[in-house]
Amino acid sequence: MSTFSRALIVASLLLAMPLATSATTRTTVGPVTLPIEVLGDGNPDTPLVVEADFSLTAEDAAATTALWFVCHRCGFYGAPEYEATTHAPTKVKASVRVLGDASPSNTTLPWTDITDATVSLPDAERIHGGIDGGFYTTHITLALDASTRARLVAAPGINRVQFRFNGTDGESNGFRVVDVQFRDAQGRQRDRQGTVAVDPKLERTAGAAYTADVEAGRTLWYARDNNRKSSIVDRTIDAACAQCHADNGRDLEYFNYSDAAIKARARFHGLSAVQAAQIVAYLRYSLRDVPFAARARPWNPPYQPGPGMECTGPACEIDWAAGAGLDAVLDNPSDAMAALFGKPVGHPLALTQDDIDRVMDPNATMNVRAIPVAMQFPDWNAWLPTIHPDDVWPDGTAGGSFEQGARFSASGDRVLDPNGQYHAMVSWLTDHLNPNGVRGDWSHLSPAEREQAQAMFTAFGWEAYTFIGGGRGNHIATNGVYGAQVGADALRAMASTATTAQGDPAAFTREAFVERAVSSVLHWNAVKQWEVTQDFALEGNQTWFIGDKDPVSGAWRGRGEAHGWVFNTPSAFYLAPHMLYQDAYGADGSHREWILGWETGNVVASYYRTNQWYQLQMTLNPGGQSGWVNYPMDWPYLTGFDEILGNLVGDADPVTKAQQSTHFVRLLQARIKSAQYVDNGITLYDPNEPDLVANAGRYGRAQTEKHLTPTNFMDNGVALGIWPSKFRFLDDLQPGLFLDVVNGAISQFNALYAATDAAAWRRCDPANTMLGDTETYSGFRYCLDAHRTPMGIDGNGRMYMVQDAYYRSSTEQTDQFGVWEATRMGAEPKRLATWSAWVDRMWPRSNP
């Protein structure tokens, strides 16, 4: 192999003498080729070793103290294996050792397992779960001990580093090293050989020609009952390659998976080396017209927001799904605030009130696609189902199968057929392509056809969700049986006690198998939405598909943004653990909720993943600024998990407080964006609709008043004392910024509500529980309290909100207190007077 590419792939048990002999004759080191792909079939008996060689000067060798590298998927993240295995699932995925000038065949030099105990991570990655946590790509520092440093040599000597994939957990087949450096104590790079990045276009171009292998590869790609589950579970699965990926394999081409990566995964699923090469030949040839996106890589999170994502037109269709790259992920609250308010990151904050007001304007449209955030989005592997629904509900399943549709007893007489809905959607779009042949141009559709398309998109996601049955946290029927139960029981029947005994019992309960079944369908649903979006170029203009017909003219009234998904239905955020979990209760009375059965040991990572999917959903499709239904966004849960995750991280020290603050910056962003979303013409309350669930008021500004009240930005006073605002950290970033944001929140509120008439609002009925709780305190309320009631006054003369027995404050108490607190803070008088006048108009002081 040439010195230009020094990644030497060998089996660790086959480190042969010819390799060592060849290595001793080399006197130069070429650039390290990146990424270093440590990808294999996953057999723990033959762990895979990849070597990279480095050049150091004598000064560099003496100064080097650490090996630093960026690793894509150095941890295990999914559900543990449960079936009978030929080899025990591996517990630690990756290991590394720095040989220096030692022979690569040396078996005495120890390996370092890559775990939280052996390596260091940046604060954000460490605090959010570590190696197996919420970040799928981590920045790892391995401190080098004295004996390792003593093996480092100056050029022309060669310093060898080896990365080892120890074996599969039953799901993963390796990891990638995206960057690697020898560093000194100040974090400066000391190696001198340089790096060269693999150009994916070379493989794509080389494979674009037709060969005799293409047809064989096509057959293998679509072959059912042909693949082994994994290298440690010797069982044939029903699903074809095409079913877990985009049907035509577009995802592998678009995200620039290498030939080696595709072949390794094929080998993981039991195919031969020849068959693996045939699949590559088919994909490269059949997908030769898929546009090349420079940042699309397996490790770059799809749709990661950042500069360049605000584009429109054909280039945006190519680049948006690739995301802005890992470099766009922020890691501190100062940069996050700068990005949110349109200022350059990496500089001291200098925000003005005008800057704040301009962004916190509900009449504006914040482009969340272009604003970097302090959160790494899920990679493409995290989208893919780890088990296809056909292997959860195969043909012959009682009540039906996923392939043919099912009629589970709890679903009534209707056949539930998400797979059929998917094929119908593809057929409709194929039949309705624009005759002008312009990709992504859907301007020719009639209003009636647009209605058909939107109904079809909406039905697709709901069909998948109805198939599993029940609702969030509750997919086990009291009477009858839901699809999730049927699938869970089928999976559980294949469980091996020998395998499950090796893991956390919570990962193998009936509830955990329900979660596996639910995850299967909803991951499939999300991948198919991505597939259809990409294949038919649906990302270009939401207004073509989201909207309604004018009841008078019949013309189409489109809504939405210039760029975004068109699915008004269960979508990406349904992949959040918070949506996939099944309530579980222990014999000791413990209650597991919001996290999956196999995540009990890393709750912060689970909450981070939940927050990832909600944040991603807002980036994909925050919804149009009119219309009745706010799907696919669920704003209260986005903001709720921004707060929950921040509170869980805590503020025990400056490091954790900084990470907590990044989540509260995203909370601020979500509140701004949600205020813009509800700036629509939906009535505050329809007095002719007695059903509070069906009433139009549930879908507009009225429902969000309690979330957008400026009081939520301030310190809150209650009888028990003062609850400091989550936004007080802003003054640490820039003096006076906290008050500036409170002023912005008041103006935002005024723009939405100040002109509303008191008579247009529904008044809360404490006896009405139609919304799941007394209407006064229901989380779904869109009413205002009927009367003003006195606030409390403590011994120091400070006002506070009077609460009920469950420590809840009514809307009128919250707004009354907010006006008082804003006055005390010194809020800008004119905007404060407008808010105060609205409060007095809604609850006149003459009322008792």
Q: Could you walk me through the main structural features you see in this protein, from its secondary elements to its overall organization?
A:
This protein has 28 helices and 23 strands. It is globular and about 90 Å long. It has 848 residues and is of the alpha+beta class. α6 packs across α10 and α21 packs antiparallel against α22. The strands form 9 sheets. A 5-stranded antiparallel sheet has the order 1-4-9-6-7. The N terminus is likely disordered.
SSE layout:
Layout: E1 8-11, H1 17-24, E2 32-34, E3 36-39, E4 48-54, H2 58-63, E5 64-72, E6 94-100, E7 112-113, H3 123-127, E8 137-143, H4 146-150, E9 159-165, E10 174-184, E11 195-197, H5 200-206, H6 213-222, E12 227-228, E13 236-237, H7 241-244, H8 250-254, H9 259-268, H10 273-286, H11 314-319, H12 333-340, H13 353-359, H14 380-383, E14 400-401, E15 405-406, H15 418-431, H16 447-468, H17 483-493, H18 497-500, H19 510-535, E16 547-549, E17 556-558, H20 577-580, E18 584-585, E19 591-592, H21 603-620, H22 635-649, H23 654-677, H24 701-708, E20 716-718, E21 721-723, H25 730-733, H26 737-753, E22 792-793, E23 799-800, H27 811-825, H28 829-842
Parallel strand pairs: 2-11
Antiparallel strand pairs: 1-4, 3-10, 4-9, 5-8, 5-10, 6-7, 6-9, 12-13, 14-15, 16-17, 18-19, 20-21, 22-23
Helix pairs in contact: 6-10, 9-10, 12-23, 15-16, 16-19, 17-19, 21-22, 22-23, 26-28, 27-28
Structure summary:
This protein has 848 residues and is of the alpha+beta class. Helices cover 35% and strands 11% of the residues. The protein is globular and about 90 Å long.
